[in-house]
Amino acid sequence: MAQIQIKNVAKNFGGYQALHDINLTIEDQEFMVLLGASGCGKTTLLRIVAGLETATTGEVWIGGKRVDHLAPKDRGIAMVFQNYAVFPHLTVFENIGFGLRMQKMSNEEVTRRVERTAGLMHIDQLLKRYSGELSGGQRQRVAVARALAMEPDVILMDEPLSNLDALLRLEMRAELKGVLAESKTTAIYVTHDQVEAMSLADRISVMHQGKIIQAATPIEVYRNPAAKFVAGFIGNPPMNFLDATPAGDGKWTVAGQVVDGPRVNLDRLQFAIRPEDIQLAEQGMSATAKVVEPLGAHLLVTCHVDGTSFRAVLDSDLTVRPGDTLMLSPQPDRVRWFDPETNLAVA
Amino acid sequence: MTDATQLVGNTRSTRKAGRYVYIASVVLLCAWVLVPLYFLLINTLSSPETVNSFPKSFIPEFDLGSLTFFAGFEGMLTALKNSIIVAAITMVLSVLIGAPAGYALSRFDFRGKELFRMLVLLTRAFPLPLLALPLAVLFIRTGLDDTAFGLALVHTTLAIPFAVLITFSLFSGIPIELEEAAWTLGCTRLTAFTKVVLPLILPGITASAIFAFVISWNEVFASAVLTIENRTLPAFLLQTLGEAPLHLKFAGGFILVVPALIFIFAVRKYLFAMWGIANR
Description:
heterodimer; A: alpha+beta; B: 280 residues; mainly alpha; MetI-like fold; 13 helices
């Protein structure tokens, strides 16, 4: 039973402010993904929760206990590292049992737990091997098993899949999700891979320049990005943006078309739409196709609308050639609006 | 077409010439080290007459006379014992002091870290003869003169830079994540060190200890100045062989060189590591 609370945490490295006043609550048994580009502070935040880094200011609470002054070993956490950190001088068995031995657990108990977690991670055949005799994927399994064997309140993962090849990553991702759901631990998972984030998370915290921009469920982050940064970061290809000018009474002019929009008193807005929420129509925004990429399931068309680059995911049955003029119609309920000054969403 | 072939021919001959220069340099450098050692070996294993005769033979005659002389030489065993005691103390002290310094250099960021690294090396910049007189006076005043411990202190100063540099590169070769993983698995800084780092660097620590041993074993100047009764082997041989016949000088030199050579050969991999040459 462990809820994690991060209260007003900030971190300075010399003169560089890596984290600004972070507030985040992760519920018991929740799978929270910290998502952001490299250098956004996500790993620093994870390491502060782990106790491997000290926050300059702020508090960390785990399971109703303040832990920011405690050593990593006293926080009830286990961590999986990006480069696995499997001890090279110990066998797989002793690696998985390392934390249990540190707790002075009986031999039978250690054996029982190691065999159980090794079974979960499908490495029960490798218990006598050393890390030098394992593949990257197997080492990753050992690292996860070692963390799970501790039966921690909280499991922290720092880009655990980023060193694996694409196919293995896909396989491990599904497996991790299953195993962690089973273990009922609270998890914080750091990644820069939005697909990984979407597929694993109960909630995603999108981070940018040391701040949490939005913390919400994957579908919420995808459908209703709270800021232009989130809209551009999540989704592949990312959201399209077009300038909009007021046409009065909650209407806005976008690429020569008048569309319904928010009733706000601003002289400019940004109109945003996901490429997959666009259809070809009789009437709509006029677009000139520039690049056409058949992706099998879809047709990805990069075109120019109103002088701006604009992507649309269209039906693969269509025939579109570069230079064609298309009429594009955005799905009205999927349109989002951003304030170009603050870059925040406008309802 | 002809141009192209000519060009290929040219680069090939340049490469060939480069290879000859390379091989010649290697042969020259090897000879520089090996030829004197070989002469030492031949003359040690020759009878006194052969040593003094000319021209020299290039084949040893396996006369063990000179070596058996040393086995029975008075004071020889005491000097050998002193040498081993001093070298052993040096070994322990330089690892005990050098390894924590190497750990700190590789794991912590602190003000003046680069300066400290340079200062470590600077201890080698002071010529011993310059220090010998003040040291001798100081040792006589504190009663450390003519003791194995006092001499070991001086030798430790000489060996520490190497101990620091070797252990620094060893610790740097161990990813910090291994220690961090140990901390999250229930270790303190100390238990993480003893359970994870120490087993991994033990071979390297042994190597740096052996290297310290060799430095002490080979050191002659401080030993000759700071000890009188309790001389180490090099100082003892320097003193007694001054007037000894040539064949005994060769044999004495041989006795000194062989253990050092064997030890250095055993730890060569770690000496490369000291200079940052990857050897794994």
